What we know:
Layout: H1 12-22, E1 26-28, E2 35-37, H2 39-58, E3 62-63, E4 69-71, H3 79-85, E5 91-94, E6 97-100, E7 103-106, E8 111-118, H4 123-133, E9 142-151, E10 165-175, H5 178-199, E11 204-208, E12 220-227, E13 233-243, H6 245-250, E14 253-255, E15 261-263, E16 265-272, H7 274-283, E17 300-304, H8 312-327, E18 330-331, E19 334-335, E20 338-340, H9 347-357, E21 361-365, H10 367-372, E22 374-379, E23 384-385, E24 388-389, E25 392-395, H11 396-424, E26 426-427, H12 433-441, E27 452-457, H13 462-473, E28 478-483, E29 502-507
Parallel strand pairs: 3-9, 17-20, 17-21, 26-27
Antiparallel strand pairs: 1-2, 4-8, 5-8, 6-7, 9-10, 10-16, 11-12, 11-28, 12-13, 13-16, 14-15, 18-19, 21-22, 22-25, 23-24, 27-29, 28-29
The structure holds one RNA strand.
Amino acid sequence: MHALRVTRAEDFPEWYQAVVREADLAELSPTRGCMIIKPWGMGLWERIQGELDRRIKESGHENYYFPLLIPLSFFAKEAEHVEGFAKEMAVVTHHRLKSIDGALKPDPEAELAEPLVIRPTSETIIGDAFARWIKSYRDLPLKLNQWANIMRWEMRTRMFLRTAEFLWQEGHTAHADEKDAMDETMLALEIYRSVAEDFLAMPVIAGEKPENERFPGAERTYSIEAMMQDGKALQAGTSHYLGTHFAEAQNIRYQNKDGGMSLAHTTSWGVSTRLIGGVIMTHGDDDGLRTPPAVAPRQIVIVPMLRGKPEDAQILEYCTGLCAALGAASAFGAPVRAFVDTKDARPADKRWDWVRRGAPIICEIGPRDAASGQVTFIKRNALREGEKIKSHTLSRADFIVQSTGLLEATQKQLYDEAKARLDSNIRGDFATFADIEKYYGTNDEGGEFRGWARVQWSRPTGAALEEVGTRLKALKLTIRNAPKAQPSTFGKCIFSGAPAVEEILIARAY
RNA sequence: CGGGGUGUAGCUCAGCCUGGUAGAGCAUUAGCUUUGGGAGCUAAGGGUCGCGAGUUCGAAUCCCGCCGCCCCGACCA
């Protein structure tokens, strides 16, 4: 008897929806495609924010805030950029409502002279500021970041993975030359890799996107790709070297040391609330989410087993004291986040609420524990032994001393588990495209697990690349990226038989 | 936007084919019992049956239109 009605094996998409709901992460809002993020989900995002914000600042960036609304004309400047986003922009056209025939409508007389676009990303409005702020090589590099909400009018939305409105961080920088900008692009990618792996316990493969998967307006796009438990890839973060495309379009120039004018080289990079979807599909199980301790808003939850009897007061006092003592311990370089759940609800129900949310350690303190100075607890990442819930007992003193180790070991176990799944499900033994077709092309109604393929190719461009894309699309596959770690010698291109120049990852993707 | 599914109580769903005053389980509330772990019994509260228009004496049920959600596709740094 699992805590969720649906198991991953039965129906992975349904299971995902169930975790989002049952772990109380978020729910759909009355606004189409937008979600209400609830405290446990928002707590995850706040932890991600805190960690990323620290690293972004440590690497020399400063936070700014640019407007939500961007003049429509700004998008007309970079041709590829507008083409990429035109189909999913929400546009503000009026500034006043009026009651017309009893219905509240935009006042026809209050139409804006120039429509405003709700930002789908901020390259254009930040580029405009760059053009004004950057005059001399002494102004470079200019490295900024902003935390913001974004709107993209998506055809099909999924909680956390693709919503019309989402929260993200977007870094934007300008540099004197390509080398400096490329160093920045790779620095951002490395921060994302590290946060995903070290903080979210979500192993990823960092690499460069092929030409046809680039950000509109980018010269080069890099991504980190994570493997979900259904074998699909999730693009969990991106970093773009924009070359001088936006500098040309928006006139971002500076006077160089020789007195001449040069175009700035810009970058942009971002991660979003989509990471939470990645955490769910990396660490979730049939009892709900398993939240990695480093990111868990509450790491140790204490459930007092109250029964409406005189000794309740004693149990509560014991729990409060335990909570305070745990708060004085530390894990991951910060005080342990412990919490006593005093909600007026049945203890067993509270236990299962925290199991579904995935609190890493859940203590259940009864009168006997309180009286004898013990702690009875369950470990969420290894909840069951067979079908049964596995419970542990330590003395209070031992539990407090070991809490750091328990949390850090849980983090490592979650990472190791996910890393083993990633490593063992990337196949590198496809000799021909026919082998790929045979593996991915068979009937997949049963939802059989298929991981990723690592193959070599000749990195075609233009029409030849499009043809590769079409062949892959027939199998519902896409090229994810060319991993940073490349072999020293190459064989033949799996698509054309020509000499290969690069190894790439192919997978189904979210 | 195209194809399929679906929408009935907070949740999961039955009822619809064959029209006749709205159901179950869980949850909620109250009482009693129970108490090392998702308790039992009894009782109660809770629904414009997604929205709108139609057929009919009568519509959750039949017809038409619209909307939301889920899946697949298209699309999607």
